[in-house]
């Protein structure tokens, strides 16, 4: 029996060895050389030094961190609010909750197209803003950045809603009845019954949203293409641009290794803090 | 009495208004994309209208031939094979992690999950280099393999959350009755985990269906998926983007999502509930 256990995870390990370790070795190798050139050579840690000295990299990093912070601050409270309000039985509630979930199942590219259509010159959003006398265009850095944030919120509030409303159902109704009899206020009920009941799903939502907003590429690529200037260039976009378009493979490889390490460290830290050091498998 | 009922009425009215507002915010962009696909090109280019003044189904007819048809078929093939590959593989792995503790399992599990965290951008360059060397570039098989990178960890994660909710006593009872592992899976474990099965399948399908970064960078012509084809369409600078076509493709791309949500919502909303482990 004891050897069968390894057999069970064997297929998964093999697939991921081919798809994860092997590419990682290649990218590590690139990060110490000048790939795609006539004389790759050995560059020592020059590529890493270049990345850490590059203001473009740090700009993209800071922009991405800011983006993640704002997006979390918008999506998690609104998603939670939606989950608290849109529940119960009834046809209207059924329709509304289905509609709110839909965006999370739309391809990122299509979300990008959708918002390109909405924000085109003379499109619905500029028209709508025009009613309030605001001139809206994607062509200024500030409005492009905020449009990216709004688009991300439109796309991912759905996931927060889906996961949180799924877990709200599991809180036993008797708790609420007891609270009502004891005459606790709405805030107390939320603070001492609802919030503890959804703590774990909330942690998962936070993790998923942090990871994914740090990885964001597609919508960014489609909606603004990093522009105007470099004002909406996030980390993934930066790495792809360097590697595929500007063809500086060594630099791009080193940047992606640093990026990978940051994301994994961040997750490890969060998991440790949020599970109070119990780690991934509670044993 | 009268006071409370009018207060209730007010509360209900506010709620209904809120619902309608939510519906508008989430549905209007979808509506606008669909009608844009039904407009003539000149109508799209000249003014913003909120319904097509002249219905034009040429864009949708275009979807049934040439590169668009190929892209849609490619997408379906890659998604179906992703589900077929990842579902059993992740099931076995999750079963091992959930039921059969073994040496080093925590480390292997963390490594597996980090693949979900790892930014795909880090992998595009090496995948590109490897695939061009071993002839997987621009093949559906190549995309299928690349997608396991994020599909497998997520699938294992979701499977685990469902398996944790199944009492371990069931295993003991089955094995005491002399069931083999496979018979146990077929007769007991998988039937109990049906909501999990559906949720995992839906998530694998959706993440493969929506994936774009690998699809754009690891294909050229023959294996372009729908998201890749859409990207090409709206990145065509110089000619001016054919928005009608992009909108038609976009509309097609959201159909599976809507169908899946409607039919599997009751399973999806149970998805992560019993999750007690990260």
Could you describe the 3D structure shown?
The complex is a heterodimer of chains A (283) and B (278). Chain A is mainly alpha-helical and 283 residues long. Chain A has a single domain, classed as MetI-like (MetI-like fold, Orthogonal Bundle), CATH 1.10.3720. Helices cover 73% and strands 0% of the residues of chain A. In chain A, helix 1 packs across helix 13 (249-274), helix 3 crosses helix 7 and helix 10 packs antiparallel against helix 13. Chain A is globular and about 75 Å long. The relative contact order of chain A is 0.13. With 278 residues, chain B is an all-alpha fold. Chain B has 13 helices and no strands. Chain B has helices spanning 2-37, 41-46, 58-62, 66-99, 105-117, 121-134, 140-163, 168-176, 181-192, 194-210, 213-217, 226-235, 243-268. Chain B is flat and about 75 Å long. The chains are: A mainly alpha (283), B mainly alpha (278). At the A-B interface, helix 1, helix 4, helix 5, helix 7 and helix 10 of A face helix 1, helix 4, helix 5, helix 6 and helix 7 of B.
Work out the helicity level of chain B.
over 70%
Q: Give the total of domains of chain B.
A: 2
For the record, what is the CATH homologous superfamily label of chain A?
MetI-like
Mean pLDDT of chain A: 82
Give the CA-based shape of chain A: globular
- If interface size is counted as residues with C-beta under 8 Å from the partner's C-beta, which chains form the largest one? A-B, 99 and 95 residues
Mean pLDDT of chain B: 84
The number of distinct structural domains of chain A comes to 1
* CATH-level-4 superfamily name of the largest domain in chain B: MetI-like
Strand fraction of chain B? under 5%
Query: Sheet bearing the most strands of chain B, described?
Result: none
CATH fold naming of the largest domain in chain B: MetI-like fold
CATH architecture of chain A: Orthogonal Bundle
């Amino acid at each position: 029996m004891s050897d069968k256990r390894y057999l069970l995870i064997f297929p998964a390990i093999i697939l991921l060895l081919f798809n994860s370790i092997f590419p990682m070795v290649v990218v590590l190798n690139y990060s110490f050389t000048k790939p795609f050139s006539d004389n790759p050579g050995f560059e020592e840690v020059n590529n890493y030094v270049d990345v850490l000295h590059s203001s473009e990299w740090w700009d993209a990093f800071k922009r991405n961190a800011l983006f993640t912070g704002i997006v979390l601050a918008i999506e998690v409270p609104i998603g939670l609010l939606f989950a608290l309000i849109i529940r119960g039985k009834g046809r209207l509630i059924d329709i509304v909750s289905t509609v709110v979930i839909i965006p999370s199942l739309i391809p990122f590219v299509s979300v990008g197209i959708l918002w390109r259509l909405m924000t085109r010159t003379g499109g619905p959003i500029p028209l709508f803003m025009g009613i309030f006398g605001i001139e809206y265009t994607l062509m200024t850095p500030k409005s492009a950045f905020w449009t990216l944030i709004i688009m991300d919120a439109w796309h991912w509030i759905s996931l927060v809603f889906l996961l949180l409303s799924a877990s709200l159902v599991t809180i036993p109704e008797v708790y609420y009845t007891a609270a009502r009899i004891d005459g606790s206020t709405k805030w107390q009920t939320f603070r001492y019954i609802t919030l503890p009941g959804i703590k774990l799903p909330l942690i998962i939502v936070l993790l998923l949203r942090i990871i994914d907003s740090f990885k964001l590429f597609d919508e960014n690529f489609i909606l603004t293409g990093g522009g105007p200037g470099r004002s909406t260039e996030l980390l993934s976009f930066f790495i792809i641009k360097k590697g595929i378009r500007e063809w500086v493979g060594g630099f791009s490889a080193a940047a992606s290794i640093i990026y990978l390490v940051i994301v994994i460290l961040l997750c490890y830290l969060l998991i440790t803090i949020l599970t109070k050091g119990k780690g991934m498998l509670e044993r | 009495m009268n006071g409370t009922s009018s207060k209730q009425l007010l509360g209900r009215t506010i709620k209904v208004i809120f619902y309608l507002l939510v519906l508008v915010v989430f549905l209007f962009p979808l509506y606008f994309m669909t009608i844009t696909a039904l407009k003539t090109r000149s109508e799209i280019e000249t003014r913003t209208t909120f319904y097509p003044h002249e219905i034009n189904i040429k864009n949708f007819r275009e979807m049934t031939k040439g590169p668009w048809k190929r892209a849609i078929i490619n997408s379906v093939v890659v998604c179906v094979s992703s589900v077929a590959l990842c579902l059993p593989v992740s099931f076995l792995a999750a079963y091992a992690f959930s039921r059969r503790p073994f040496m080093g399992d925590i480390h292997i599990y963390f490594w597996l999950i980090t693949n979900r965290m790892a930014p795909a951008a880090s992998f595009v360059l090496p995948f590109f280099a490897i695939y061009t060397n071993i002839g997987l570039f621009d093949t559906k098989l190549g995309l299928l393999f690349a997608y396991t990178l994020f599909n497998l960890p997520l699938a294992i994660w979701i499977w685990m959350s469902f398996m944790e909710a199944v009492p371990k006593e069931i295993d003991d009872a089955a094995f005491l009755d002399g069931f083999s592992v496979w018979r146990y899976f077929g007769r007991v474990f998988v039937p109990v985990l049906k909501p999990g099965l559906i949720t995992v399948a839906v998530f694998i399908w959706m993440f493969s269906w929506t994936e774009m970064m690998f699809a754009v960078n690891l294909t050229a012509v023959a294996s372009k998926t729908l998201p890749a084809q859409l990207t090409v369409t709206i990145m065509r600078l110089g000619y001016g983007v054919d928005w009608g076509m992009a909108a038609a493709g976009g509309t097609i791309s959201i159909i599976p999502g809507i169908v899946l949500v409607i039919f599997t919502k009751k399973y999806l909303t149970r998805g992560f509930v019993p999750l007690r482990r990260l």
